[in-house]
Amino acid sequence: MDLSNNKFTGDLPKSFGSLTNLTELFLENNNFTGSVIYLAELPLNYLNLEGNHFSGRIPRQFQSIPNLWFWGNRFDTAAMYPPWNFPLDNVPHEQNISSPPSSQQSAMVDYPSSEASETKKKKLSPLRISYVVVGVALVAVCVAVVFAIHIKRSNAKRLRSLGSSNSTLHSHPISPSIDLSTAAQTASPPFLEISSPFNLVPRRNPPVLLTNTEKTSRRKSFAGENKFAMNSKVYTVAELQLATNSFSEENHLGEGSLGPVYKAEFPNGQFFAVKVINMVSLSFDEEEKFMDVIQMASQLRHPNIVRLIGYCVEHGQHLVVYEYVRNLSLDDALHSEVFKPLSWGLRLRIALGIAQALDYLHSTFSPPASHSNIKAANILLDDELMPHVCDCGLSILRPLTSNSVKTKASEIAIRNTGYIAPEHGQPGSDNTKSDVYAFGVLLLELLTARRPCDSSRPRDEQSLVEWASIRLHDNESLQQMVDPGIRRTFPPRFLSGYADIVSLCIQPEKEFRPPMSEIVESLTRLSQKMGMTKSNASIDGAEVEPLFDRSFRSTQTCFGSSPAASLSIDGT
User: Fold this and answer.
1) What is the SS3 assignment for 335?
2) In terms of Cα–Cα distance, which of 94, 107, 99 is closest to 62?
3) Helix (H) or strand (E) holding 33
4) d(Cα 89, Cα 101) in Å, to the nearest integer?
């Protein structure tokens, strides 16, 4: 788990102590306080606590952690510390940045004596001091010249941007709802053809002028200097407030790691989903980063990706408007007892749709775009149970969110550790390979209907990947892994090919994971081998019908509402 560089504050939650499968934890460069005793019993191989304000004792159990960093905190410096034979000899003197120098032995560092500092001061002759003064003056002059040139160029760009027009894209109506009895027939075959990814490459267009934003804040003028024109509409706060009934509780759809999501109904009858991103006060560069993320997301055009319709940057508010995908998330469909189990054919079709969306992200843009937060809660199912991946590209905004949002994000991150690739947080990690790993976990979730990390199960079954890895290539064990609700609804001989795909995706070494393009081909071949035609629909029998609410299945022809929220985006 990597929570580094996020400006988190406060004590560590007690819930960290329940992460009994956690082997890597990176908390460096935050503002955590209090004790680290909740981490003492975890089977950690990597632990980085640097650059925080932790205090108290250093647990004796930490001596068994192979890779440990905890300099720059406020651990006890009293006698008899540290509590074990701690190697202080090789610790750099400048590491302890959180507490002042002390003559006492520290749990982290020894300081150079004041006599040594006085000796260094005496070595500075008047001639050397004059050299230093002249050098500083020259540097100051150079900085002033460079700053003046930068200001002049920025003003010129701002003047040029005033001549550009605001590029907006009018919202398109939602397609009319279909008769779900027809949807059940359409969904009956275990596979429906999903169109290939579009070969969309962003084109350079004239810059965009955000007039609404410029009226409220001068520093928002950077939006007029974007590399590409926005393929999205610019909304005002007033428009979104009216459409969401002042962001009322009745319009609240869900809560994610970036903020809440609301259903919005506009005067023309259109429905959209509005994500409120609660951010700290942003600098100019951070505002530009936000607009770069919106610009990238506005380019995405794929049938299995939730489309970004527009955005709002006004009065310090940051909101994103998406198309409204009705019904429920894949997480609800797999884990809620309210709904009937998805048939094997539908699960395979959903997996293929998600794979095609990720392949589109990885192969369309240069450098490749990644999702970085693939999980069942971020997959929405429409009326026809087709998957739509949401929150593409937004995970990069997490460090810019407010502390209250980060606290919520840390709780969500704890629940979703099962999707995180082993190399996460390491320098130079490839996020596309991390997407492949998370997709492999999602394939296991579709197969077993188990959560990726479930502390309610026995210890050796809490991690889905660890539990499943040793069973994927044993036919008898593989059959027992299948969700009991669909175990006898299709021939088990088709499981081995699926297990091979899963095994490649969850390889611990990222170099051995295949690209998403190969995974799409493998899933397509697997579907074809199963004879995806209506004449073979009897494989799944009655189990291929959509997941109707059990209590209304015999009398209703519409979906029951999700217990959470149909658009509960419990991710980004």
Assistant:
1) helix
2) 107
3) strand 31-34
4) 17
Instruction: In the chain, count H helices and then E strands.
Output: 14, 16
d(CA 387, CA 330): 8
Alpha helix positions (H), 342-463: 344-364, 403-415, 431-448
For the stretch 461-504, pLDDT in tens is: 999 999 999 999 999 999 999 999 998 888 888 899 999 999 99
- State how far the Cα of 288 lies from the Cα of 224, in Å rounded to an integer: 10
Which pair of tokens denotes residue 246? 């002042």
Chain center to CA of 273: 18
Assigned token pair, 190: 């275990």
The H or E element containing residue 312 is strand 308-314
Tokens standing for 341?
């189990």
Report how far residue 188's alpha carbon sits from residue 491's, in angstroms, rounded to the nearest whole number.
Answer: 17
Of 341, 303, 433, 328, whose CA–CA distance to 379 is shortest? 328
Q: Which residue has the tokens 């560069």?
A: 285
Strand locations in 360-489, DSSP E? 379-381, 387-389
The vertex-275 CA angle with 170 and 326, nearest 5°, equals: 75
Distances (CA, A) of 338 to 41, 187, 328, 564: 37, 20, 12, 11
Digit-coded pLDDT (tens) for 289-322: 888 888 889 999 999 999 999 999 888 889 999 9
- Is 1.20.1640.10 the CATH classification of the domain at 180-552? no
Amino acid at 200: L
The tokens of 481 are what?
């892994």
What is the C-alpha to C-alpha distance for residues 525 and 496, in angstroms, rounded to an integer?
13
DSSP secondary structure letter of residue 22: -
- pTM for this entry: 0.57
Domain ranges for the chain: 9-120, 180-552
